[in-house]
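Backbone shape codes:
===
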Amino acid sequence: MKYLRLLFLPFFLISAYGPANAANPAEAKTIGRVIREMPELSSFLQLLEKTGIGSTLSEDTRASYTVFAPTDSAFKKLPKGTVDTLLDPRNDDRLEEVFGFHVKEVSEAPIFIEKYSLLRMTTRQFVSVDYKNKKIGDAQFTGEIIPCANGVIYLIDKVLTPTTDDLFQRLQKDGRFTIFTKAITASRQGKLFQNMHGLYTAFAPTDEAFGKLPKKVLDSLFQPENDERLEDIIKHHITGSVFAYGKSSGDRVSLGVANVTPFSAFGQQLNYKIEGDHATIDGAKITQTDIPCANGIIHVIDSVILPAEKSLLQLISDEKRFSTLTRLLEETGLDLPLASSRTVYTIFAPINEAWEKEPYKSIIKKRGSSRAEALYGILARHVIVGKHVSENPNPYNKLRTIHGAPIYLTTDKGESKISGIPIIDSDSEAFNGLVNAIGSVIHDPMELPESDITTIDAILFVQKSLKEGSDLYDVGEYESSWRSYNRNGYEFLSKYGQFLSSSQKSKLVSVIVDDQPVAQLANEAWKSRNVFKDTLRALEQREDRIVDSYLMQLPQESRFGR
């Protein structure tokens, strides 16, 4: 996988693009000094010498930076007098903003930049990047990449202009969101979209998206009696953090990445899925992504996303296929938290046919207190605190039921299962959680407490994983082999990660973090196999130390067989 590649970068690449502390910093070829030596960057140099960060780029070799430097020909494309205006002392703040929008903290080699779709600059603002097509914002990369003692310089053919538009202003100016901006204003939620003290993600439905709603429904949203409902809907289209569609530099997160679950300002989960060649959020197709604004980003969607109004119990009760489950929940008292609790749950809901199978059919027919206790224990292993999306890209997720027992949510080749049971319908949303329909009752987890899991268990698991992956590889099933290692890697870390050191864990993570291999599948499968073999050796060494320690505590006669 591509992340594995990064661990083995050639030394020259690291030294060329990373910070290099010269013995004499005054003689170091810093970014500032290199810019001074390049005639084609004379205009950019004028800006550098007037900014606070200019001296840092010239003198500081303790930190590293990436600078996207417009050439003189790029400045000639600007309206006449732009540079003079920026250099006017009265415009120092704007100068710092414009120059800082060309600088990113941390030196980024091309191999790193090419994985990003957004870069966060020193101004805190984002700029879109597509390095494979040599684009950053509306500029093109030109010329050679220039390594420096404290970072790297990329030449570009246009001056990057940081937007001053907040989310609301950007939506207003676009022209595709007149109904959405009207709704934001009517709901008095403009402050959410205009707040410059945070960074946000807006999922913006176009006018055509609102046109999909029945006219009566659309008109009703703007009636005074529906003010609260409109407010809820608008809040459901914005999150309190930046969720990039692609990979983003810095401390931001990306949609579709394991354990990334956006929650709207309304408080409900926004369910992200990959469906064929496109992505959806709460069922709405994302048609345009990662539009930078001064206080976040915008994703364009083709439908209005509506927050859930029903409770978990209502969702279950409304469907005939869950009638047995509904009755059992009521009998055991589990219906109460699922009806109105502020706690959020995920329930894996067996359909009626599942309860007709033994031993559950007999348990249901019993009478007395033992029956109620048994039913509660069975139902409890179907309820999880929190929202767990079945389409989570992690192939293996260990969950804890409200009883504390482990159950496992797995995804393989697009099929999601809970403890081996296929999920029929996934992630029906209530205001207090999610419902996933399943065709069987989850069996009693017969797993030992984690404290009783031994190194031997871990060794046996790795041996089994190696055999499975090797057998598939030997018959030419390279993708299946890689996916087997990928899936088993997640499971191993969940069950036995405690037996590995941090560095050993990192090696194993490196072969499972990526959704798709970037090199030949055969090579990726072979890399995974080698990491599993290293893991096995580490576990065997650990077990040997444990045995040796035990033997040394025995009397000498036993220890030496005398």
Notes: The longest strand covers residues 139-148. The radius of gyration is 29 Å.
